[in-house]
Amino acid sequence: MYHYILFDLDGTLTDPKEGITKSAQYALQSFGIKENNLDKLEPFIGPPLRDSFRDFYGIDGEDTERAVAKFRERFETTGIRENQIYPGIYDLLHELKEKGCMLAIASSKPQEFVHIVLKNFDIEDCFSVIVGSEKDGVRDKKIEVLEEALSQLRKKAGRRFKERRTLMVGDRKFDVEAAKELGVDSVAVTYGYAPDGELEACRPTYMADSASQLFEIITGEKSYYRYKDKRAFQKTCEILLPLLVYWAVQLIVYNGLYVLIGRVFPGVFANRSQLSVWLNAFAAVASWPVLAGFYRTSAEGDTSHVITRRKRNRFKRDFVLVIAYAVALGMGLNILVAHFRVAELSESYVQVAGSQYSVPLLVGLVIYGVLTPFTEELLFRGVIYNRIRKYFPVPLAIALSAVIFGCYHGNLIQMVYAIVMGLALSLLYEYYDRLLAAPVLFHSSANAIVYLMTKGNAFGEKGPVLYGLVLLAVAAGLSAWYIKCFQKKMKRR
Asked: Which of 23, 110, 152, 315 is within CB 3.0–4.6 Å of 75 for a Cys-Cys bond?
């Protein structure tokens, strides 16, 4: 556990984007430079202002001081209030203080502004030491700020102070490099405003995506330890309640529509298999508002829009890879099922399959390639997996959610198939930082290709086993790659 924690302010504890970028925009306009895209001014968040104006826009010498003055002209009156604290930071700081940690601020922002921001969010009392820069350029470099903050911490802590128990938390390379130079460990938070690749290149001791991960790094306690005293029965009820509610909604809507349609259009009962497919589809859609409510209370939102933007970009980059993974695993498993005639062992499976393929191709693709995957992923990954993860470590959460997903499908064949698919779905969900689009795309791709191939009798009465084994080998390779990348990612913490 670390006892002495130094925090950067902008991009680490608070999100000052609006205030800083608009003030930078205002200063640049005085030089005839128009920049309408505030995202392009994000590099001003963190480094000393003089360096930013020089490095990004070539403003040097006396013009630098004029640019800084224009920046502060707007920032002091308006920009300083255009700020917000990151989710979880308020509780993190108070929890660390209660545990006996000595906290400090080491910011490149002028010290008087630092005090204003901390008071605005009612967190100033959490810090034993508050150090910023001076408006006249004194203590303008991050190394100078951190050196002064460490000096004051040493004086306050006295003989108890130990460098090995000291940690610098920041969002830019300047924080990490200053910590290295002074011989203390560092955490780079990824939800700040560092350009892509900057934090990995400067090699901090740890990296964190959220306040909860910061808590784990600083204290050495896993987040789920907080619930170790909660009874197993309470955890089970909380995890399975959404599934029971979903089943109840399905039952009410399905049977309600069945009775209503039977009275108004009694002729539709001539094809009960198709009617069942349609009713299940309507019942699934009817459950969306309920599941959306559970999702809002179960899923942990992104710490910042920067995190959201980065993980969406990563998912877009891997879009084809996710589809390939889904096709390989889905088709490989189904080819083996067809080859070994496993379906014949389960009468209920045959009945379910017969019902699913009784509708026209386009209808089946919409229902089983779009509606069903979205509904099941919203429930099983968006709600149930997130609730399991609250109480258990990630590997166990992945396994438990896959088992629940398998049991939901009823008959033995679908159960085994769903458990295997559930493991892959939860792995993807975790790898892409719990972006729901990832498992939805995987589930939709797998369902669509299997539906197409089965409807067209592509597997035949006895599927080509060699093709199935090759596809499963590809899926196994991709699984191993995702696991390796995920383990590497976890080691950063």
From this structure: 23
- Where residue 323 falls among pLDDT bands split at 50, 70, 90? very high
pTM metric for this prediction: 0.88
From residue 329, how far is each of 80, 189, 360, 445 by CA, in Å? 52, 35, 25, 10
Q: Is the pLDDT of residue 460 over 70?
A: no
Confidence of residue 237 (pLDDT cuts 50, 70, 90): very high
Tokens, residue 86: 């990151």
For residue 64, give its domain range: 17-81
C-alpha torsion 477→483→489→491, nearest 10: -120
Same domain, 49 and 136: no
Q: Are residues 338 and 454 in the same domain?
A: yes
Decide if 8 is catalytic: yes
pLDDT tens, 267-317?
Answer: 655 667 788 888 999 999 999 999 999 999 999 888 898 899 899 999 999
Q: Element (H or E) spanning 479, and its range?
A: helix 465-491
What average pLDDT does the chain have?
A: 90
Helix (H) or strand (E) holding 102: strand 102-110
State which H helix or E strand residue 7 sits in: strand 4-7
* Per annotation, catalytic residue among 8, 10, 15, 302: 8
pLDDT at 416 over 80: yes
The Cα 75–Cα 65 span in angstroms is 15
Q: Which residues are paired to 185 by β-bridges?
A: 167
DSSP conformational letter for 303: S
- Across the beta sheet with 4-7, the strand order is 129-133, 102-110, 4-7, 166-170, 185-189, 206-208
- What is the full DSSP assignment across 181-225? HTT-EEEEETTS-PPTTHHHHH--SEEESSHHHHHHHHH---GGG
**Confidence check: pLDDT of 97 > 60:** yes
- How far is Cα 219 from Cα 211, in angstroms, rounded to an integer? 12
Report which residue type is found at 108: S
Q: How many domains does the chain have?
A: 3
Q: Which two tokens stand for residue 128?
A: 């034993």
Angle, CA of 153, 154 and 155, to the nearest 5°: 90
CA distance 455 to 459: 9
Burial class (CB in 10 A: 0-12, 13-18, 19+), 169: buried
Q: Are residues 69 and 97 in the same domain?
A: no
Are 325 and 381 part of one and the same domain? yes
Q: DSSP string covering 440-467, please? A: HHHHHHHHHHHHHHHHTTTT-SS--HHH
**In this predicted model, what pLDDT tens digit does every residue of 121-146 receive, in sequence order?**
999 999 999 999 887 667 778 999 99
Where is the domain boundary, 56, 81, 106?
81
**DSSP 8-state secondary structure symbol assigned to residue 409:** T
Judgement on whether residues 97 and 136 belong to the same structural domain of the protein: yes
Q: Mean of the pLDDT values across residues 44-58?
A: 86
